Fold each of these.
Amino acid sequence: MVIGAFSASAQAQSNVTIYGLVDAGLVKESGGVAGSVTKVTSGIGGQSRLGFRGVEDLGNGLSAVFALESGIKVDDGALDNSTSTLFNRQAYVGLKSKELGSFTLGRQYTMLYNAMSQVADPFGAGYAGSIKNLFATAGANTRVSNAMVYASPVVNGFSGELLYALGEQAGDSTAGRQIGFGLNYAQGPLNARLVYNNRNQDTAAVGTTPAKKQDEAKNTLLAVNYDFTVVKAFFAYATDKGLNSSPIPVANAFGYKTAPKPSTDARDILIGVSVPAGPGNVLASYTSKDDKTVNNQDATQWALGYIYPLSKRTSTYVAYAKIKNKNGAGYTVGNNNEAGTGDKAFNVGIRHSF
């Protein structure tokens, strides 16, 4: 839905779009300490959401832009976050120029997550086969608050992005800050991105609690897809180094006597395809995490799915994935919105965008 308005005094055209996604289905998980789990859940392929975005033409190729987006749970109607933050998904405002690019401030996606969901993964970071099950996407790797983002215009298929997020900890300007950048290329059948994300893990002193210095989390990702028409091929390679660079989504999902240890030095690989089949597409991927620490807690995942469009905005889906953990690793098969409970999961559901 687009709501338009014209201000005679400002001589500027503006409009606000109301948009969203409603995604729900049946999930069956097994293999974890919780046993067999069957549930109706929300946001399997993409997190259900309600959003508002707007643009105002300021003249001379310059526009004001904003977005406010809230995650919701279709299964019970609640806000889809533990803090009851209204616009937990996106909340930003900025300026956009046709010649100079855009600059926005607020809560925004990282280049790291955008590259994974938009380029690297045939499952689009959703369903049972989600790249999020093994690649590093938890917390601020997906979205970060207090962020300033610059995105350049596209020139001959090339573009760039820069992100700086303030930690906003009193007495320490670098504690908790986050930096990201991306180099993008999209032209014809080729889409490629090289991105880097750096999170400062320090905490500033608070009262009698002293400051804490910690290793930085550094994530680098190369994501590529190429459309051969008869098949679309996907590839991703990532390096994860430092504290919290490769978190385990569920602390000890399999009830090990010794809980799995998050890697501080890992390599991640994804190879996938999207194949037209009838009116829909068959999706398949193989993902691996190679833990380079002495713990050697590796994991691999196989995934298969099918997306069947009922219209331009409505589709049904089915997906299955299985993870093999090694040497006490504890990765789980989740989906776009949940971390999962075991090493196997099956999804079937429906989604509608508006």
Note: Residues 2-353 form a domain with the Porin fold (CATH 2.40.160.10).
Amino acid sequence: MDPELINDCVHCGFCLPTCPTYALWGEEMDSPRGRIHLMKQHVEGTPITPEMAGHFDACLGCMACVTACPSGVQYDRLIEQTRVVIEREHVREPEDRAVREIVFSLFPYPRRLRLLRPTMWLAGRMAPFLSRVHPGLGSMARLAPRVEHRQRMPRVVRARGERRAVVGMLTGCVQGEFFPQVNAATARVLALEGCDVVIPRGQGCCGALSVHAGRAEQARRLARRTVRTFEKAGVDTVVVNAAGCGSSMKEYAELLGREPRFKVADLSEYLAELGPVATRHPLPLTVAYHDACHLAHAQGIRDQPRELLRGIPGLELREIPESAVCCGSAGTYNILQPQAAHDLGDRKARAVGTTGAGLLVSANPGCTMQIASAMRRAGEEIRVAHTAEVLDASLRGVRL
């Protein structure tokens, strides 16, 4: 915990109305400035107590406070540093430790996730039993998506027409195994816009889940492998279609102590900069676009996905009330803090329901699973899609 970064906070309170946990509970220690106060106490000699750890664990890391702060407090860096300290110094209860070990021995490893796919149809039925074992396990089961079939990605997808660029594409862990259709759509969209898309073998987790949970060594190990993979591929830009992954990869220099030999760009960010050349076919859809926190707050990317969607003829874009408030997914938060995530998911589902949209579009797999689950609880089924899938349908002239 960096004392200089801690002292940047003047405790003005502008962060309070933006903080999801403060909105839920109205508890000062569950606000950004309250947590910074606890960080200061620890730096000045107070040991980490279970109560302090609980307040830090309750933070979603959504970074809405970073956007709102007039003093430029780098809360994103502070909470990541704090979580490393928590993991090093705090001894958790055995049940909590066990669930965390399951999560971080499973989700960052695509091959292990792949073994789960044939059992996904059982997940929902097992959720009540797993909830009795531990609420987080029940939450994990309820969120599990149905994966119809795996789509094996080629090593290179060639540009359609004149080649305008060569880019790498991250396939990811959760995205690659649970949402393979999103990766396929991403590659097609880039190719239709004139890009050769290099998809190296040997990819896995970028380390984002581990970074956000304070598991620094695991994060560095996964990040090094990702950097080696794309540097060996020789690409100058790596395009990412998952908000949390893109946010962490843009901070690789700080995590690894050196700049990678490539830049990282979110799909919508890259396409907006590249400019459209492919013809958009009409899609008669009413769409609600959800701002993933690690896209809007951490990367500052809000306008680009909306511009891309508005560029599709026949598509009507509707804004979601309280769009800056986290849906409760936040990486592994909806597993490790299931009740708070449940409440935030219900709040987001109500907001989405007011739009009357027939399709919810998001740029992060965790958000997609979280909001779809909350909508089902509310009895309001809604179709969900990634920005890439909507663009892909329009560019190819097919129904979504």
Note: The chain has 23 helices and nine strands.
Amino acid sequence: MAEAQNSPAPDAARAGGPPPVGSATTGAIAVAAESTVATRMSAPPSYDVADFPVPHGREEEWRFTPLERLRGLHDGTAVATGEGVKVDIQAPEGVTVETVGRDDARVGRAGTPVDRVAAQAYSSFEKASVVTVPKETVLTEPIRITVHGEGGVAYGHQVVELGAFAEAVVVIDHTGDAVLAANVDYILGDGAKLTVVSVQDWDEKAVHAGQHNALIGRDATFKSFLITFGGDLVRLHPRVTYAGTGGEAELYGLYFTDAGQHQEHRLFVDHNTPHCKSNVLYKGALQGEGAHAVWIGDVLIEAAAEGTDTYEMNRNLVLTDGARVDSVPNLEIETGEIVGAGHASATGRFDDEQLFYLMARGIPEKEARRLVVRGFFAELVQQIGVTDLEERLIAKIDEELEAAVA
């Protein structure tokens, strides 16, 4: 794969890591570094939708989003219907599953809405699902949450809470057709370990927007995989904060953007506590006219967060003409007492040399292309640790590639 790599930023170097990125532009591929202060939000966080003006598309946090395709989620005209989505939760023995109201203390504890759609979701859901893993419980089977769209408009809220030293894997699977705004809270007790795999495998007309908040306790580990394939428009906002020292966050993402799709991932890691770590790696592939992927990676190291170690990387593979990537890594450091910090972004077209190398060894072109893209995503998929899901994702990637050459 030939990549457009940016020159290093002197203040973002990290020993042993890849070179950080400043800015680069290649045709319709744009990569830019900007101030984190400008990109995080234009209004203070709030649970009240009235505190956020209706976006017009010129705001920093909305400038990449085609607002008309949000189907009214951003301006209050999307009214929930009874046939919006169906949620099914399959949990191993020992896990508690509850349905609660907005006044439950766990709802919203991990983070406050930072844009109008997230606030609209919080203000509009009727009941929230709360999944609780008791302290010191180590699950050997995943918790599986299925969100299936049934053609309507829906608002939702999901909470996953792990007690101290608990360990769990949660798979959240989104399928069907819906217009959905839903927030998810992850609350990790001290020493807890949580792996979350959120799969957006919607039908082609679906719209999905939401904010994912993770509150990481002392010495806790949070690993997130955000996998996006389907939908007309998907706009997700993962956010991480730390509730104690020694917390670690690993945020991985995989997206495959087809013709006409808009897929947007906007991350924010707030290093507000000393001696915590974060690592971000998102990879995307794009094909077809009008395919548009947006990745915003904001990392803030606050003045109190001494001993922070952080790195973020976004890589994109453009398979055909007519696709566009906007990749914006941001890093703001308020203290010099850190272990390491850096960011990088690389976007390139399919490497003809790699293709020629494989074909010269007797591999047909179609199979060679599949092998290159599979290899591009393999390091992410293989880290999930759920065999049936890994196999399904690889099959989905193959299906996307089949469509490209059909």
Note: Residues 25-349 form one domain.
